[in-house]
Every structure is written in C-alpha cells, then in structure tokens.
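Record 1 of the preview.
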Amino acid sequence: MSQQALAQVLRQLPTYRNENVLVNSSTFDDAGVYRLDRHRALVQTVDFFTPIVDDAFAYGQIAAANALSDVFAMGGRPITALNLMGFPTKLVSPKTITAILRGGLEKAAEVGCAIIGGHSIRNPEPIYGLAVTGVVDLRNILAN
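->
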C-alpha cells in the first residue's frame, strides 16, 4: 500500500491519545515509541513480506534485518522479536521453513535480539518477518 493510500485510510480512524505515546503512525516513522519512565521508551515495529530471493536462509536474514533496522532507525536497540510467518503448507517444505527461520534467528542474534515466539498461518503466498520490540533512551529518539 502506498504511503498516500495509507494516509487516506488512517485519516478515517479515531486517534487514541496517550501522553506516553511519543511517536505513532501519524508521522510515518519506522516504528512507534512509547515512554516507559523518565529515561527510557519502548520502540515497536512489525515488518514482513513475500520472498525477494530464491535462497530460503537469505530470505529469512533479509526479512529479519529489515524489521530489526526499523528499531535502529529510531535510535533504539532491539531486545525481543516474534516471528510472523505464513506459508502454503502443501507447497513449502518444513526444511525450507526451517531455513527461513534459521536465517531470521541468526540475524537477530547478531544484534543481541532474542526471538521469543511468534505466530504462523496458512497463506497462499509465503510471508515472513518479525514484530520487534526495542528500547531507546529518551534523549536518543530519532523521528521524522
């Protein structure tokens, strides 16, 4: 969905006001930011897409790196992530799914981010990505 189309949809929705929400979807940033206390905030994002390469392991790495980078783009450090995946189970083998997940796990481990679970669905097209939670010092938030 284009940013313009998304903006049109989001304008139709009510906005929930919360003084601890520092960055939300209204700014089209890479992630949302929620103040925890006087010094720290949570950074949250989700990113997934269909395969862009033929190699399953590389696809997992690319998808994970893309999601993790959203937290870094906000000045934060990823701490946990959840796998998000959907596959046409009759067309994608368990071996391929394992390779995708292993690629994501390796990329997350490179930056000290623990994958602590996730969710899977049957889907007509393969999709994979991560929902990532990070932390950021309030003085270091980078936003649009």
